[in-house]
Every structure is written in structure tokens, then in C-alpha cells.
Amino acid sequence: MLLKGKLSDVEKVSIVLDLLFAGFETTSGLLSLLVYFLAKSSQALQNLKDEHRALRRKKKEGEPLNWEDYKQMEFTMMVINETLRCGNLVKFVLREAIKDVDFKGYHISAGWKILPIISSMHLDPSLHENPSEFNPWRWTDPATSKKVTPFGGGLRMCPGSELAKLEAAFFLHHLVLNYRYGKVFKSYIFGSPTIISCDLELNKFVLQKEGKLFQSSYPKPIRDILGKHSLMIVSDVERHKKLRRIEVGLINKFSSTSNFLGDIDKLCISLMESWRGNQLILFSKQAKQFSFNLILMNLLDMQPGEPLGLQLLEDFLTFMKGFVSIPINLPWTPYAKAVKARTRISSTLKQILNEWKNRKDMQVQNGQQKGDPFDEILVKEDLISDVEKVSILLDLLLAGYETTSGLLSLLVYFLAQSPQALQTLKDEHLAIRKKKKKGEPLNWEDYKQMEFTTMVINETLRCGNLVKFVHREAIKDVKFKGYHIPAGWKVLPILSAVHLEPSLHENPSEFNPWRWTDPATSHKVVPFGGGSRLCPGSELGKLEASFFLHYLLLNYRWTMKEEEYPMLYPYMDFPKGLLIALETETKNVN
Ligand code: HEM
Question: Domains in the chain, please, with CATH?
């Protein structure tokens, strides 16, 4: 065609260059974007696979694709169109007005440049529902195609649009039939071959088969710092069972003492009091202090401010810093300081244990035995060594501290951005307070009435993902859902990926406590892990957060003073400390 045409040689070369230039970046970009979006959208990937498998079934072995096949790729077309809408390969085009133009009240003078921004139209919320969500199904509505112009329009509309789509469709056909990728994949991290699982069923399977097919397998630096007696580290089934029975018993015991709820209540009130007159607070630090004090009171039977408690806090903070540092054991490194701090914490906890023991001996001598919750550890002293007892206390301190404080920060963060959830929550707590006498502390009955509060906490755990993943190892060759996991391989069930999976949760990045009215939601969310290692502190953490919310809502309104996002270091935290402005709530009932 080029040879026969009446074009100059320069024009012919320019045409070839045009096609090369226009076709190269755009087609390769489109393929990359397809791989990128499909890797994150398992439902779309599955539909695509089904379409291409069905096509392939109708063909002979090795038979190439033809036009007929291409015309049947309806869902593929939707995926490609949605990729073009979300990916915005061409963000804008350049034009110039050749005459004065008046349109919709705008005046554009002749000679002025105009940049029609195609991408802003594609992501305009008034044109597309949840525009940043990759949702190929929106293309079942014929109106969508009228609001999307990835190939430009008019006389200059891209002449290669059909070709690019066809190439992408053929590429996808072979990609999805030949390769698996997406929710479960192999990798090499923490120095070991590892299976990363973002698949709900596989994650649940791994957690449920603890001790039979999988075992806990935390990286060496974490093992070293937690100590070999830590519940999270112990992999021997019988030892884990024994230690866990004692830890769960201890949590249950202190949760059932008469002053347990009263102590939490008092601590919440004193926190609210300490904020009087303050307009700005760095909430993340306050939450950590509060969560540590809760542990001191509940677990160690100490009052906040006691010298031993302050010493423990200082060592504990050093310990936590080293816990997330590079594991180099030289005297000045945070890691080495953490190892030393752990030794000091152990000896403080040992001292506390001895004090309890002496107190108990005295009580026995005086015939006034009280059935202390700590008997759980002391009485069973023949079952476990002193080192194990200290490790149990350290486990609870460590597991309860970052998680509870993180949960409180996340609650403050999400609620500051969700006025409707905040109002519903406030109504629930005002109703509870109205039924009580002035200053009357909260009790179990009140807690049981906090239905919307529980939904808010659950949604915060789903969106906030305090624990992103857990560490496991296959102890046997495992086959599950077509995946093969060789014995000895590490497995990381990624809890957070499941929580933010669009095929499981509608608009997963939206904070929506009402999704918990559907009982199915709780089966698709595992913030506390599962199986025989299911978090034994889950109920305690939720109760503490509920009490805290009660007093916060009745006493204050708050706004965030800086743009902030929760980040992982690897604990969840707010880089700027979650600065909030407080205003005293005037609608308080009593
Ligand atoms: C409030 C938010 C909390 C979250 C999101 C959370 C999350 C988790 C998760 C995901 C695990 C499983 C780890 C694994 O499978 O390897 C776990 C284990 C554990 N948690 Fe929690 N936790 C929370 C609060 C607490 C509290 C308040 C305590 C204690 C006072 C606690 C004590 C423990 C202990 C001792 C384990 C180890 C269990 C075992 O290995 O058998 N947690 N937690």
C-alpha cells in the first residue's frame, strides 16, 4: 500500500514512524496494566479464566485463535476497557482553538491551547460509581462507554484502537490459560523459600492445621528476642497446649475478678480527665501509655505510676524499639539494647512473681487465702519453670500492648472520617449512659448492649489490619486446592489481603461498620488469626476498646489536625503521632 501510494518518501517514513511510536508504548503499557489490575482482582481474573477456558474447549489442540473467537471475548473486552479507564495510558491530548469558541458559558480565544484531560473524566465520581475501583462489570451498562474516551475522539480518534484491543485479548488468552498468579505465589523472603497466601480458604486451612501440617515459624531475630519459651514461638504441640492453657486461664481469671471492669472504667475516666484543658494531643502516644497501664493493672496487679511499673515501661519501650531493628548485636545498636532490656524485664517480672508468692505464703499462714488470679501461675508452679512463668507474663505484655493501643488509634482515625458511624455510635453510648446513675461505672450488661460499637471495632480491625500476616512452616508436603506446598517451606498467610479483597467485601477500602449486619462478613475476616493459636486476648482487647470509646464519645469531639495514614514499621503506627484537636462534648448526659 505504501509502495503504491502517491506519497513522498519522507511521508512514507513518517507514517511507519507514527505507527511504531503510537503502537509501541501504548500496547506494552496496556499489557502491563492488565497484569497489574488482574493480579489484584481475583474475581475478574477468575471470570476471565472461565471465558478463555470455554473458548479453548471448543477448539482443537494447538488451533490458533481467529476473529470468531475474538468476537466471543465479551468479558475480556470489559476487562480491557476497564483497564484503559483506570490505567489512563494517555492522560490528555493537545489542541489549539483556531477560532473564538463559546461553549457552556466558557470562552476560549482563538490561538489558545486546550488540554482535554481524558483521565480526569475517567476518574470523575459524578460519572462513575467508585471510580478508583477496578470493576469490569460496570461495562455491562452501555452508558459507561459514552463516558470513557481512552482512544480520544472525533477525526483524530486512535486508528489502532481495535488492533491494540485484539493484541491484548490474544495475549490474555495465553496468559490466563498457561500461568497462575494472583492470590497464592512463591517467593523467597526472610532467607527461606516461602509461599505467600492471600487466599481466604488456604489461610484458614493453614491456621486450622496447626501442629498437624503446619507449625509456627517466626524468623530467628524475632525468636531470639521473644525467647524460646514464648507461646508464639513454641512449636511443640504438647508444650504449646500446656503454656496456652495457663495463659488463657490467666486472662480468664483476671477478667472475672470483681474489680476488673471497675479498673478499666477508672483508667478511662482518668485518661479523659488528664486531657481537660488540652486542645491538641498526640493520640498515638496517649493510647500506648493507656494500654500499658491497662496491662499493669490487669495483668501485673500494679497501679499506674508505681516505680516498678515505670521501670518496666522504660525497659519495655527499649525492648520494642529493638524488636523491629536490624538484628546486629553490637553494644550501641537498638537490637543489643533490646536484648539487655529483655533481661532486665525478665528480672523485674521475676521480682513481681516473688512478691506474689510471698504475699500468698503470708495469706496461707494467716488463713486468709483469697483465690488470687495469679494463683493460676503460682499454684501450677510445679508444671512450669520460673523462666516459663516470666515468659508468660512477657507474652501477654508484648501481645497486648501494641495491639490494643493500635486498635484505639485506628478507632480514633477511622471515626474522625466517618461522621455517620460516629453519630450512630454516640447515640448508642448516650442511650446506655442515660439508663445509669451519675458516675455509675460500666458493667457487663452495658457491654453486651454495645452492638454497634462491636461492629465499629470489627470494621476497624478489618480496615486497619493490625496484624498483617503470621509466620508458619509446612511440616509435611501439603496439597490444597491445587497448590503444592513442600515440607520445610515457609508459609505466610496474609490476613490483611483477605480483609481488603474486592471479591469478598464490597468496596473493601471503605470504612463501613454496617457491613457487619450481614453475618457472612465475620467468616471472611480473621484479625485474630485462627486454629489453636487464635488470639486469646481478642475479647479483652475488644472490651477495653469499647469502654474507652464510651468515655471518649461522652467527653470529647475530635478532628485530625494533620493528614495521616496508618503505616507499618512493622507494627501499625501513625508517622506523625496522630495529632488530634479535642473539643469538650457538651451534650454529655451525666
Ligand atoms: C486487640 C487487638 C489484637 C489483635 C488484632 C491480636 C491479633 C493476634 C493474632 C493475629 C494472633 C495470632 C498469631 C499467630 O497465629 O501466630 C495473636 C496471638 C496472640 N495474642 Fe493477640 N491480638 C490482639 C490483642 C491481644 C491481647 C489484648 C492479648 C493479651 C492480653 C493478646 C495475646 C495474644 C497471645 C498470647 C497470642 C499467642 C497465641 C498462641 O500462639 O497460641 N492479644 N493475636
Answer: 9-88+135-178 (no CATH), 184-584 (1.10.630.10)
